[in-house]
Write a structure and sequence with these properties.
The structure holds 2 protein chains of 2 kinds. By secondary structure, chain A is mainly β. Chain A contains no helices and 11 strands. In chain A, strands 2, 4, 5, 6, 9, 10 and 11 form a 7-stranded mixed β-sheet that branches. In chain A, strands 1-3-8-7 form a 4-stranded antiparallel β-sheet, with no helix packed on it. The termini of chain A are far apart. The relative contact order of chain A is 0.34. The model of chain A has no long low-confidence stretch (mean pLDDT 94). Chain B has no helices and 11 strands. In chain B, strands 2, 4, 5, 9, 10 and 11 form a 6-stranded mixed β-sheet that branches. Chain B has a 5-stranded antiparallel β-sheet with strand order 1-3-8-7-6, with no helix packed on it. In chain B, a hairpin with an 8-residue loop joins strand 9 and strand 10. The model of chain B has no long low-confidence stretch (mean pLDDT 92). The chains are: A mainly beta, B mainly beta. Chains A and B meet through strand 4, strand 5, strand 9 and strand 10 of A and strand 5 and strand 10 of B.
């Protein structure tokens, strides 16, 4: 039972490069989320999805895009990376009325 | 914006003591949740308390919720060195079909052996 799996675990990008973070869950959850965590600021919601084929903006969506073509996968894209996007990114999934299950995170550095 | 704010920001206790962390929030909620994060790891869900509940227990954890004061507390009894971690409260607001959690900035708990 893998839960929520994020790939890659670490990545260093140059300013202006693009990349996609992959999140996969095997619990058949409807809801999926992308958060970023910066020192001293807790977690902030980037984008989320309430089901296959749906996406919505969270608190800090600028500079990111997402897609949920399959129920088990939620992709986070950075089209043109900026140093301000250096952060730890967490994916999570959930069902109604239950707590979230988080992945182990992706540590991204933009230089 | 931070809906939940934990207090204290850092707490250091001896093994065997109880640890209490508090969380305050600003708007009405469906439920409040507590999570633990060990250094360099993802968050782990500890307990969820609904807005119509006042107290909930899970093992050595006790959570209270006071919706009139918009506050919650997490009590860890008989703490162990393995409880050393950051603890976050998160609130879920009424928002139709979309579930969204808003996290506080966390309490760093250190349990000394």
């Amino acid at each position: 039972n893998a839960g929520v799996t994020q790939t890659p675990k670490f990545r260093v990008l140059k300013t202006g490069q693009s990349m996609t973070l992959l999140c996969a869950q095997d619990m058949n959850h409807e809801y999926m989320y992308w958060y970023r965590q910066d020192p001293g600021m807790g977690l902030r919601l980037i984008h989320y999805s309430v089901g296959e084929g749906t996406t919505a903006k969270g608190e800090v969506p600028d500079g990111y895009n997402v897609s949920r073509l399959k129920k088990q996968n939620f992709l986070l894209g950075l089209e043109s990376a900026a140093p301000s996007q250096t952060s730890v990114y967490f994916c999570a999934s959930s069902e109604q009325y239950y707590g979230y299950t988080f992945g182990s995170g992706t540590r991204l550095t933009v230089v | 914006s931070q809906q939940g704010e934990e207090d204290p920001q850092a707490l250091s206790i001896q093994e065997g003591e109880n640890a209490t962390m508090n969380c305050s929030y600003k708007t009405s909620i469906n439920n409040l949740q507590w999570y633990r994060q060990n250094s360099g790891r993802g968050l782990v869900h500890l307990i969820l308390i609904r807005s119509n509940e006042r107290e909930k227990h899970s093992g050595r954890l006790r959570v209270t919720l006071d919706t009139s004061k918009k506050s919650s507390s997490l009590l860890i009894t008989a703490s162990r060195a393995a409880d050393t971690a950051s603890y976050f409260c998160a609130t879920e607001r009424p928002s139709g079909s979309a579930r969204q959690l808003t996290f506080g900035s966390g309490t760093q708990l250190t349990v000394l052996p």
